[in-house]
Amino acid sequence: MSDFKPGLEGVVAFETQIAEPDREGGALRYRGVDIEDLVGQVSFGHVWGLLVDNSFTPGLPPAEPYPIPVRSGDIRVDVQSALAMLAPAKGMRPLLDISDEQARDDLARASVMTLSFVAQSARGTSLPAIPQERMDQSSNIVERFMIRWRGDPDPRHVKAVDAYWTSAAEHGMNASTFTARVIASTGADVAAALSGAVGAMSGPLHGGAPARVLHMVEEVERLGDATRYVKAELDKGERLMGFGHRVYRAEDPRARVLRRTAKELSAPRYEVAVALEEAALAELHARRPDRVLATNVEYWAAVVLDFAEVPAHMFTAMFTCARTAGWSAHILEQKATGRLIRPSARYVGPKARPVKEVPGAEGVLGEI
Question: Which of 157, 245, 277, 330 is flagged as catalytic?
Answer without folding.
Answer: 245
